[in-house]
Amino acid sequence: MQRSFGTEISRNRRPGVELSDTQRTGILSAVEAGEKKTKIAARYRVSCCVIYSTINQWKDHHTLKSLLRPGQPKKLTQR
Q: Could you tell me the CA-to-CA distances from 31 to 23, 36, 38, 70 in Å, in that order?
């Protein structure tokens, strides 16, 4: 029996953890192949919002890496 791409990886995924580059590649290739987004979300055990945000990240930034998050800059002085 042949496994479909990404199923072994998704079974090891913990909730709340970022997707790996391999998982993002699998999501994008499944979308390009015309697979329904709900089926992709079920396979990778993520919400549909994650699928859409992965697609939008690729369209906007052309990268599979995690983007920088906004936050308070580090202080330059020491106390």
A: 12, 7, 11, 29
> In terms of Cα–Cα distance, which of 28, 13, 35 is closest to 59?
28
Q: Any idea what DSSP says for residue 20?
A: P
pTM: 0.69
Residue 30 lies in a domain: yes
Q: Is residue 76 domain-resident?
A: no
User: Is 78 part of a structural domain of the chain?
Assistant: no
- For residue 53, give the H/E element and its range: helix 48-61
Residue 77 lies in a domain: no
| pLDDT tens digits, 40-74 | 999 999 999 999 999 999 999 998 888 887 888 77
Range of the domain at 17: 7-61
- pLDDT tens-place string over residues 12-51: 556 667 888 999 999 999 999 999 999 999 999 999 999 9
